[in-house]
Structure prediction request, 346 residues.
Amino acid sequence: MPASAISDIVVPRVFTPYMAENKPQKIIMLEQSGILAGPPPDITSRFNMGGNLIEVPFWDDLDDTEPTVIDDSDTPISVSKITAQDMKAYKHRLAKKHGSKTVVGFSATGRGDTPMNRVAERISAYWGRRKEERIIATAEGVVADNVANDGGDMVYSIYSDIASPTAANRISYQAINRARLTMGENLDDLRVIAMHSFVYATLLDDEKIEFKKPSESPFEVPMYAGMMVIHSEQMPVTTGTNSDEYDCYLFAPGSFMHIDEVPSMPTIYGNLGTEITRDPDTGSGGGADFLTTRRFELIHPAGTDFLAASIAKTHGATLAELRNAANWDRKFQRKNVKFACLKVNI
Prediction:
């Protein structure tokens, strides 16, 4: 019986939607937490048009000047105006190509199909991890801009670069509440906290984590201080002289406008989302197989501009470019940008 080939298990028109649906658990948690929200229909329609930049107009809130006291004079009342601005969101178009020489599969297992079959099995998880790190990198960039240009009013820090951190330097209900208070009266909007796995382990050691199963979730989720907890080793860690600094991010539902598209335009090799190609000549005639996958995405914190001031390519940003403060600018008032940063020791 002939060995199966990658073309047997990856049928592009079937595999492309499978890539979008077969999401890792952490991505399911991110989406069910509500922090990723689809934008209004007009923005979605512009995402599917040409160009890279999407301008999102919005009305400013009414000013808080005191109303006029009525009298019997002939003095006309002063008129206040409402103003409008826009924020800029960016489309990011991403691709990844995996390949394997046929001889490698035969050397490893006696069959030529094995390496690329494994790629096909794991590609959805690969893109899930990429989305997670791009959300985190985006939050890093917005916080970096906030520290550089807005006095760090989205950040609360209990971190200290000391050899023996105390309870006062570690995550706690009190520290979380202070971080939430950076949003003023809107503090109750923050309902999800993302932290490094080492910070999460501290809470597990102290038996502070509760596990609950929301009705809409297929699994239990960890909770702390009334907030859903998402933990990842991709969360930012800054190396200190004596101890490291760990960033935790607090999010509200709808913090990020989000579109994730696996393009399905037909090509001669399948479709734009999933293309299978083979080079019979490489490896001195042994041949090689290739699987190329692509994602188009919008991951944009509501209330901010992506300035694209320092990006190398016009069709998207790298992780380093997402983290760069120069590419971000806050447009909304602090209390209307729905996330905060808490810096802690472990």
